[in-house]
Amino acid sequence: MPSTPRSSGKKLSARWAGILMPLTLSVMMTFIVSFIVTALGFGLTTELLHRWPLSWGASWLVAFPTLLVVLPAVRRLVALVVDMPAGR
Predict the structure, then answer these.
(1) Are 63 and 29 in contact (CB under 8 A)?
(2) Side-chain-facing half-sphere of 51: CA atoms under 13 Å
(3) What does the longest C-alpha to C-alpha distance in the chain come to?
(4) Helix 46-81 to helix 17-42 angle, to the nearest 10 degrees?
(5) Residues 56-78: tens digit of each pLDDT
(6) DSSP state of 16
(7) Which of 10, 11, 56, 73 could be a cystine partner for 34, CB 3.0 to 4.6 Å?
(8) What is the pTM (predicted TM-score) of this model?
(9) Residue among 53, 64, 73, 81 at smallest CA distance from 20
């Protein structure tokens, strides 16, 4: 039987999931998308390294609050087309 890794520290309570999931998603998505868009605009140059952090920060400032507002509606829309197992 494969062993499962154990958490060495205490985990946050489940009530934090509603904030941590959109926070993590917005950081990861804006990190990748802003890099691609900035690289397309400036090319793989040193200018990219100067412009990308500003682009990433600006996109994250829009993405995180947007996810907080939109995610409940997205969950409802998905629930209309996905047969969710009982208890979820």
Answers:
(1) yes
(2) 15
(3) 52
(4) 140
(5) 999 999 999 999 999 999 999 99
(6) G
(7) 56
(8) 0.73
(9) 64
Inter-residue contact 64 to 22 (CB < 8 Å): yes
Q: Which two tokens stand for residue 48?
A: 């990219």
Identify residue 84 by its one-letter amino acid code. Answer: M
* Cα dihedral 67, 72, 77, 80 sign: positive
Two tokens, residue 58:
């600006």
Amino acid at 50: H
Half-sphere exposure of 61 (CA within 13 A, CB side): 6
The letter for the amino acid at 65 is P
Instruction: Tell me the two tokens of residue 51.
Output: 């412009």
Return the structure tokens found at 72: 């409940």
In whole angstroms, give the CA distance from residue 10 to residue 12.
7
| pLDDT at 13 exceeding the cut of 70 | yes
